[in-house]
Amino acid sequence: MSTPASPAVTSEKFLAVTSPVTGEKIAEVALGGAADVDTAVAAAEEAFPVWSALTQKRRAAIMLKFHSLVSEHTEELVKLIMLENGKNQTEAAGDVAKGLETVEWACSIPHLAAGRTLAVSGGVTCHELRDAVGVVASVVPFNFPFMVPMWTTPIALVTGNCVILKPSEKVPMTMARVAALLTEAGVPSGAFQMVQGGKDVVDRLCDHPGVGALTFVGSSRVAKAVYERARAAGKKALALGGAKNHLVAAPDCNVDMAAADIVASFAGCAGQRCMAASVLLTIGEQPELIEKVVQTAAKIQMGQGAGCMGPVIDEEAKRRITGHIEAAERDGATVLLDGRSWESAQVGTAQAGGHWIGPTVLRMPVHLRKHAAMTDEIFGPVLCVHTVADASEALAIERADRHGNAACIYTSSGATADWFSRRFNAAMVGVNIGVPVPREPFSFGGLEGSLSKYGEHDITGEGGLAFFSSLRKVTTKWARDPAAPPDAANFGGVM
Question: Would you state the pLDDT for residue 7?
Fold first, then answer.
């Protein structure tokens, strides 16, 4: 798969791209290697002086044109996302819409990056200059084929960097089309490139001395390895890992609102997002809420239409998710809703070869509090429900988790909401919102030092601007007395 924004691929290895819906081959992607990274970096280094010399306003104007082109081609991109990722139509449209929000924010960078100027003493002024890093790389996952690349690419480009993107080899088609739109918008050859591939490509991006900064989004294990390797090579690095998000339901929560939101959180996008709910902690027995959650989730149909839930990305993901359910059930969990039933439901249908598993709700007893289903990121439509005695016990379970990504409190009390919001061990907190994704200009990212984030800064908004730029401080003093009136000497003899 070649695009105007991709270097020539030297490898002769190809990987089949399959539909999560049917399991059928829909495309194939050429897998690049270290040599392709070297080619891309060389092209980026050649493009950088010209691209970075443009004013930020000019680069932002190109990004505004890109925004217009994506809006014009939204239907096409939505179909590509549905085809290669399996999202339903509403989720695929949301993928594009949320990505465009970051593009919009990037268009405002000329107004945000001007820096401060201040007279700090008599005749002395300090001001800030924000420079591009140079050649930067971004490694992105499969779960949001458009939105996650847009977390980094537009901010890095408007700041003046040249970008090398490595999409997931599981979903190469969406960004291949987007690359062509970037070229059409006016991003010159070399300023944005893609290198398809696997671990070899990522390792070379981490090691290459010509790459000044690298971002990664994926599992915690890989995020840690990528961060450490990139930092060892002397570059700026920011790696976002996995999550195990906890939702706490207080006894005074609005049952209908909470149940609908909980289901949307754990089953939306087939649970394949780092902001998905994983564990529901009910303070005290709340049978009405749990019953409502199960009933609501049970109504979700298999498919890609409105209100339906799509498949998980591949057979490996399906086996992993099923394995967690089976282990929990074997060890004493009660299966309140069994998504494994979708396996038999798809027999004889067009989706027979797809990777389908339905919403699953597990009731976890006290002795399974530290079970893998309660502590590991499953990355699928599985919700573990566990009852605690009080708020302190709920908080203790949430704070014991090392992911530090997101948490939510469902309550009708402002005091309860404030108590949990101030104490959760999570960087993104929701009050009656189970997917508390910050919207621009607020930045996305987990707690530093947790399993969800390695490195400084957040990945979007002002955090992204800081990551993809270098801040210089200039202190200026002139010889003449600024209080003296101008004369010929002050102006080189010209008045």
Answer: 63
